[in-house]
Amino acid sequence: MAKDKKLVEAITSMEEDFAQWYTDVVKKAELTDYTSVKGCMVIKPAGYAIWENIQHELDRRFKETGVENVYLPMLIPESLLQKEKDHVEGFAPEVAWVTHGGLEPLQERMCVRPTSETLFCDFYANDIHSYRDLPKVYNQWCSVMRWEKTTRPFLRSREFLWQEGHTAHATAEEAEERTIQMLNVYADFCEEFLAIPVIKGRKTDKEKFAGAEATYTIESLMHDGKALQSGTSHNFGDGFAKAFGIQYADKDNTLKYVHQTSWGMTTRMIGAIIMVHGDNSGLVLPPRVAPTQVMVIPIQMQKDGVLDKANEVKTALAAAGLRVKLDDSEKSPGWKFSEQEMRGIPVRIELGPKDIEAGQAVIVRRDTREKLVTPLSELPQKTAEVLETMQKDMLERARAHRDAHTYTARTLDEFKDIAENKPGFIKAMWCGCQECEDALKEEAGVTSRCIPFVQEQISDTCIYCGKPATKMVYWGKAY
Ligand SMILES: [Zn+2]
């Protein structure tokens, strides 16, 4: 049994050192590996399968709203990046440049896309002529590169996978509507699929995307009380259209500029799943996103009939539409249990000679470790029910944790005390001045996470300067 414990002992407890716990889980659950390419990661099969499920579900939800997928080049000529002033200022410090083609220096250097607004604009300028060409509701699945100084698997890496939606519309109203629609798609996806509750709101001007008129965000809270920006949706107005000359002939035959949006979600969400749901035995995957939902683990496998029965169980569960595997490796059952737990597989089914004799098996939930002895004939149906319950419970638990770590501050002293001693969200009033926002970052170490759509009037004055305030803001330390 000493050997069986090894896998769990190999990870640091989250109470002792959350950052190390995260790194340990990523490694021991075999989600990523190191590579010689500094600041980048190898995403291993267990990690990539999670991404594939995220991608599949998001893509399905996008297409329900009329989104079409396209693919644009990964290189952007410098002159194109320069066209929108705020955008280039925002991204220039972190782009990687290609300067040679083979042995020849390029006449114009090109950056590896950090995001593709400029390429989409260049494309739209050629492709949009008339009101009949609108709207364009395109999305691209790809990787992007940002030359980050410090990196962590999934949360911040120089190259990461994402989707970027880019749309063009005839009117400002339509663009705003699409911006909010996609934010809602992200929010529903997080809650329904990843069991991660989110706060929907608008970014302050300081925190908005480079070149955007407005940035909307969903913010979630990790187990350690830090916030994670989980998806953003930007309304560009006609700023990019003017910089790139994207005009269409309207019904009255006058030329008008289009209004644009963009929105993105990344492999960061795998980091969010780990940090919202994981525990000291490893990863805990919400059933809907789990590549494998059920692991069948035979006990005393060498005994006659056990492996046959385990195979039968696996076949019956697969026939019921569950994603199921059978661990028939030569390892001990205890070792298999800890591996299944480390990898976050939502449910395991234990099946030994005594169970078979009694016509039953044991369903064990990964999150609560609750055991349910179930007749073999009812196993597919009961397992599906347990997975559904677990999905709901995980969302509720995450919501309860977030709510228990959301504080309200009415005075600056109170604000600073919470920021220093109670990790979580702080709700406080703000006057709208960037000076106060900067000061709170400087003095309390927090940033504005969002101006939530659901507002509360906590007091009438700004938490920092005391001037009249009408906006309630969520503040916090963020990844
Ligand atoms: Zn103020």
What does this structure look like?
By secondary structure, the protein is of the alpha+beta class. It has three domains: 18-277, Bira Bifunctional Protein, Domain 2 (BirA Bifunctional Protein, domain 2); 294-388, Anticodon-binding domain (Rossmann fold), CATH 3.40.50; 406-476, C-terminal domain of ProRS (Translation Initiation Factor IF3, 2-Layer Sandwich), CATH 3.30.110. The chain has 15 helices and 23 strands. It has helices spanning 6-9, 18-28, 45-64, 78-81, 85-91, 117-127, 172-192, 239-244, 268-277, 306-319, 333-342, 353-358, 379-404, 412-421, 434-444, and strands at residues 32-33, 42-43, 68-69, 75-77, 97-101, 104-112, 136-145, 159-169, 199-202, 214-221, 227-237, 247-249, 255-257, 259-266, 294-298, 324-326, 347-351, 360-365, 371-375, 406-408, 425-430, 447-452, 471-476. The strands form five sheets. The protein has an eleven-stranded mixed beta sheet with strand order 3-7-8-14-11-10-9-22-23-21-20, with helices on both faces. A hairpin with an 8-residue loop joins β1 and β2 (42-43). The longest helix has 26 residues, at 379-404. The model has no long low-confidence stretch (mean pLDDT 96). The protein binds zinc ion.
Helicity, as a percent range: 25-40%
* Ligands, ions, cofactors: zinc ion
CATH superfamily of the largest domain: Bira Bifunctional Protein, Domain 2
CATH topology category name of the largest domain = BirA Bifunctional Protein, domain 2
The profile of the biggest β sheet is: 11 strands, mixed
Strand order of the largest sheet: 3-7-8-14-11-10-9-22-23-21-20
User: What share of the residues does DSSP label as strand, in percent?
Assistant: 25-35%
Shape: globular
Low-confidence runs of at least 5 consecutive residues: none
Radius of gyration: 25 Å
End-to-end Cα distance, whole Å, is: 38 Å
Protein name: Proline--tRNA ligase
Function: Catalyzes the attachment of proline to tRNA(Pro) in a two-step reaction: proline is first activated by ATP to form Pro-AMP and then transferred to the acceptor end of tRNA(Pro).
Domain Aminoacyl-transfer RNA synthetases class-II family profile: 45-286
Subcellular location: Cytoplasm
